[in-house]
Fold each of these.
Amino acid sequence: MTSKQTDSLNGIKDLLKKEKQLHKDIRKDYKKITEKINLDFDQIQKSQIKSN
C-alpha cells in the first residue's frame, strides 16, 4: 500500500470515528429533548386538571 493510500484509509477511519461520535451525541440530545417534552406534557396535564 502506498503512503497516499494509507493516508486516504486513515482519513476514512477518522471520518467514521467522528460520525460514530456524532451519532452518540445525537442520541444523547434526543434523549434529553424527549425527557423535556414528556416533563412539559405532564406539567400541562397537571395544570389542566387543577384548573378544572
Note: The CA atoms of residues 22 and 28 lie 10 Å apart.
Amino acid sequence: MASGLARNGGKKHELLSAIRQKMDEDRDAQLRPAEAVMVLQWAIDCDDNACKAELLKIFDAMGGLRLMKDAFADLH
C-alpha cells in the first residue's frame, strides 16, 4: 500500500490518498508497522492542527495504536 509508494519516491499527499482509498475500500484495513511509523512521524512533524488530527485519526483507525501497544507488551 503506502509503503510501496514511499519506497518509490511518492509524495505525502499521494501516500495519504492511497491510505484514505484503502480505508474507504476496506474498513478493516490495517497499516503495516512501517506505514504506522510514517503516519505517526508526519503527525509529530505537522504544524497544522487539523492535519495533525486527521493523521492521528488515521493512525488510530488503521491499527497504529494497537501496533504500539503490542510492541510495548512484547517488552515485558
Note: The first helix runs from residue 2 to 7.
Amino acid sequence: MRVITREEIVAEVTETARLAGLTFEEFMAEGKSDMLTDAAFRDIWLLYRDELLER
C-alpha cells in the first residue's frame, strides 16, 4: 500500500482546480460552501477534504 502525502493531495487538488478554471483557494471555498457542481470535482473534494481541512 502506498501512502499519499498531503503535498501530493494539494498538487492533485490544485490541478483539479485548474481544470475547473479555479485557483486552489477558490476550489477550497467552493468545496466548503458545497458549490462544486461537476461530479468529478465534487468527488475529489469529498475524497480529500478531511486532509485539506485538517490544517
Note: The helical segments are 6-19, 24-32, 39-53.
